Amino acid sequence: MAEHPPVIVHPPSPTGGRRVTIEGEILGLAYSSVDLLEFLRRAGMDTDVVSLDDHDLIEWRGGGHNVWM
Q1: Which residue, of 2, 46, 50, 69, is most buried by count of CB atoms within 10 Å of its CB?
Q2: CA atoms within 13 A on the CB side of 10
Q3: Which residues are CB-neighbours of 3 under 8 A, at least 6 positions away?
Q4: Within the chain, which residues score under 70 in pLDDT?
Q5: Using CA atoms, how far apart are residues 53 and 18, in angstroms rounded to an integer?
């Protein structure tokens, strides 16, 4: 069975925003990449070196980092 990246950005909700989980733990609802980076910072990641295109770190479901609604 293939492993998923630790960060999952779920599809946009009908009211906007995307749920973010890290290793199965829900961090919250992000409405932009700025929100996502804040969640990652709070989880202890160095956001100065995190790439939102890093497929080993982040799995985007329902659209990439430009889709929030």
Answers
A1: 50
A2: 17
A3: none
A4: 1-2
A5: 16
